[in-house]
Amino acid sequence: MTFITDSLSRADVLLCLTACIAFLIYWINGSKKSTRNMPPGPTPLPLIGTLHVLDLNRPYKSLMELSEKYGEVFTIQFGPKKVVIIAGYKAVKDALITQADDFGYRAEIPIMSLLTKGNGLLFSHGELWKSMRRFTLSALRDFGMGKKTIEVKIQEELTPLIEDIKSHNGKPFDSTVILTSAVANVICSIIFGKRYEYDDQKFERLSRLMEENSKLAGAPSLFLYNYFPFIANLLGIHKKVLKNMEEQIDFASMCINNQQLEFDENDITGYVDAYHVKQKQDSTKADTYFNEENLVYTVLDLFSGGTETTSATLRWSLLLMAKYPEIQKRVQEEIRTHIKLGQMPTAENRRNMPYTDAVIHEVQRFANILPLNLSHATENDVYFRGYCIPKGTEVIPFLTSVLYDKSQWETPYKFNPNHFLDANGKFHRPEAFMPFSAGRRACVGESLAKMELFLFFTGLLHAFTFHPPAGVSREDISLEPDIGFVLVPKPHLICAKLNN
To answer: Which among 478, 457, 497 is positioned nearest to 359, based on CA atoms?
Structure first.
């Protein structure tokens, strides 16, 4: 007892006791969920469940190992909460497409519920989600997603991006902020009808906040918040990510307010304007979801969803080109065949550039940007692969297991553009290519991301050759991702030599 009182204050002891009692009640209640005919899995231990078999820094690696043992569908237990993992291309396809209605619900993730309050696009449910998604898809199409108008915006963004990289004069630089800013400007042009300068402090701050929250969301401490919320709340683990979110909300609100001041119903320049038109149309409806709070969170969802994964993929693409110069050289030869030096790439070029297209797709597959996907849930009892998954169960359609499925990919753990080329060297897309997920909850910005990746990647490799800094060999380049919910390269510097 003397040791305890020397190490902890009475308040600390009381806090720990309260946390333990609260958690015990939570665990007992959570464990009451029926396990009859649920998928198999590792045997849970009291209180911690199956945490002892998981690497919380890189849970996707542990889940791949467990899928080898337990198969396509298995159950793990995070504390008191049972989570079903669906692994492999065939099973994930059946869940998300064949049984789309059964698995179309979004899981209740405590940290996301705290941050979004059920608003927005990514973590909302029911009629609210349906209304937001339907309107958002329509608005994005109206503002050029997948069309020539957005192609022009991406091409226009390539110019300042290339100039910024040129300014480093071949010296080592960190590509994170500049690539994030370029991609963010494309989605800003759709949301607000404007772009920001790369040195705009508020714009740069927003990009860094998104990156930090993405990293925090994949950290063990936030994992603790999601599955042991009683303890995590008492320890204040969530405070940093909540503070960052509040700052992002302030930025989005400021931009929306500025947009309202210039609003002209006869000159709709972006998503926010279109939302306000819809808001006015629905103003007499008692059950409308088009309020200002929903607008703020939907804008943030679009901004983060339209920036993080695409910019991360571009960072991986440049790093991989530096590591595999022979692949970079072959891409550049194909580019020079179809695009003159100084000329902007076009979306039309893609059909004549199968190798470049294959490399971009292989970057997406190999980088495995969103390894765990966003969690789904069962709205009712669901029968799948001979098992009963109870209503309200969190389900993870495990994207890593799809993109690295050894029954679908010749060399799943190697960077190999031939995965996307047929025997005649023509591009082909295997059905197991699923980086944007699939079904009802698939990424709304898939067509935009595909166009951005092709135009930015092709434009950058047309202008530059990327290589590691002096003293760093290609063998020294690490392809181990940093810790985070979105997998990004570990911090590194890269050099860009201007092509003649």
So the answer is: 457
